[in-house]
Amino acid sequence: MPYDSSWVEPEQFLTYKGVDVFHTYRDNDINSGQRSCWFTTSETCGEIVCGCDTDKCHHVFDVRCIPVFIASRSYEDNIKAAIDAELLTTSGHKFTS
Ligand SMILES: [Zn+2]
């Protein structure tokens, strides 16, 4: 059976200081819903696919792994704090996720 599988751009979560942050999706399927804690700084890196040329993806991260993460703060504010601290840049994250 053929199936329809087309490329869809991920929805943007935020953009801050030139860094774009996008949602990721369960099984990389937009119809399966957004991951609540996982985000990516690259449109081409998601839960399954990765455009990085290394073993470990530079772009997909769990917001709770941000070293300056504070649970009482919103995900948006935590991500902005990571960008302020240069832990998250246009080339990806600089922490283990
Ligand atoms: Zn990647």
Descriptors for this entry?
97 residues, mainly beta, 4-stranded antiparallel β-sheet, two-stranded antiparallel sheet, 1 helix, 6 strands, globular, binds zinc ion
Quick overview:
The protein is mainly beta. The protein is 10% helix and 27% strand. The protein has one helix at residues 75-84; strands spanning 12-16, 19-25, 34-40, 60-62, 88-89, 92-93.
Q: Judging from the principal axes of the Cα atoms, what is the shape?
A: globular
Rg on CA atoms, Å:
14 Å
Mean pLDDT: 93
Strand ordering within the main sheet: 1-2-3-4
Small molecules held by this entry: zinc ion
Low-confidence stretches: none
Termini Cα gap: 37 Å
Question: How many separate domains?
Answer: 1
- Total helices: the number is 1
Helical content (DSSP H or I, runs of 4+)? 10-25%
The major beta sheet can be summarized as: 4 strands, antiparallel
Give the class from helix and strand content and strand pairing. mainly beta
Number of strands: 6
Structure description:
The structure is a single chain. This protein has 97 residues and is mainly β. It has one domain (12-93). It has one helix and six strands. The chain has one helix at 75-84, and strands at residues 12-16, 19-25, 34-40, 60-62, 88-89, 92-93. A hairpin with a 2-residue loop joins β1 (12-16) and β2 (19-25). The site of zinc ion has 7 residues, from loops.
